[in-house]
Amino acid sequence: MLAPLALAGCSSDGSGGDGKAGSAKAADKPATVAVTPSGSGVKAGQPIKVTAQGGKLTSVQVTDGDGGAVTGKLSANDTLWTSDRKAGAGASYRITAATRTESGTAGSTNAAFTTAKAEKKNLVTWWPGKNTTVGIGQPISLVFDYPVGTESRAEVEKALKVTTSNNTVGSWGWLKHYDGKDRIDWRPKEYWKPGTQVTVDAPLNGIATSKERMFARDYATKFTIGAQEVVKVDLDRKKLVLERNGSPVRTIPVSGGTPGGDKRSWGGTTVLISKEGTINMNSETVGLGDAYNKMVDYSMRLTWSGMYVHAAPWNAAYFGRANKSSGCIGMSTAEASSFYKDIKVGTPFETTGKDHKGIPVQGNGFSNWNETWEQWQKRSALS
């Protein structure tokens, strides 16, 4: 039910006792305005609605607790305004609505309400980092702590806005993260153009992801695309080539994964996820028994399953000659040191060769580029 709210408007004083005077008084009465939701600590996740009875809405202004404007749309007959987004959890809103009756009487209504905090939240982990400069293969990636039901995915996807400085064409796609969590990525149709400025807005607060959980905050980030760089790893020739603007600028002899078994390297296109410095690598964590357990320098992650590019001085005899690693791409410490310094997170690595263990599944790192544009678009909940 729409609860009428106190309003201030123009009206006659109604003096006089004949029927005509009474009719004039009724005609001069401002429209009645109601806002839903209303009250204190109300349930979040509902659209904000402003309704006029006995007249039309001429303007509606809604602001949140931070002073930000909440946009919305008027119905065709100008009697109902509905917000574009739902009321968020743990939020406050102020509403000012102006009305006019058919006889021209103007009115103004002020209202406010607050929403309760979400009892059970769904949180988001986000790539890439804010205000970073990344490589041309970097997708936008959101991993959700709890499942996003199929009935909620279209609404979530509609809320996500990607704005670029050059109108880059791209699409969202749903997949499973490597740990089994729901994830949505946005990738361009082709690799990003260098220098592209990207802004991502995710006004998710108030959107339910299941019967029990909802998002309880908004998210936003900005990042920039760096130079046009692609790394090409040729397992047959045992070399890594860094290309800039289509031309090779550096060639490094490497040793890839051992052919013929589980120690082979992944093929296809992967994207540099992170630069992790010196880390402990233990073969037992990736299902290779007790093959190794050592500290490894200049570690650059390509998949969540454990494929890295890194310094591998213990394999020095094989660089450029044979593939003898347990799946990673190894190089000398000197080469790894300078390569680590120069390469950007988000740079695509295109790995080829006769004996690799296939293409990483979607979700194992950023394997987005191993699908055609048409295949990728079908992952959208809006396709």
UniProtKB/TrEMBL annotation:
The keyword Cell wall biogenesis/degradation applies. Residues 229-352 form the L,D-TPase catalytic domain. One of its GO terms (molecular function) is peptidoglycan L,D-transpeptidase activity. The active site is at residues 310, 328. One of its GO terms (biological process) is regulation of cell shape. Residues 11-42 are annotated as: Disordered. Pathway: Cell wall biogenesis; peptidoglycan biosynthesis. It comes from the Bacteria. InterPro entries: Big_10, LD-transpeptidase, LD_TPept_cat_dom, Transpep_catalytic_dom. One of its GO terms (cellular component) is extracellular region. Keywords: Acyltransferase, Cell shape, Cell wall biogenesis/degradation, Peptidoglycan synthesis, Transferase. Gene3D superfamilies: 2.60.40.3710, 2.60.40.3780, L,D-transpeptidase catalytic domain-like. PANTHER family: L,D-TRANSPEPTIDASE, L,D-TRANSPEPTIDASE YCIB-RELATED. This is L,D-TPase catalytic domain-containing protein. It comes from Streptomyces tsukubensis (strain DSM 42081 / NBRC 108919 / NRRL 18488 / 9993).
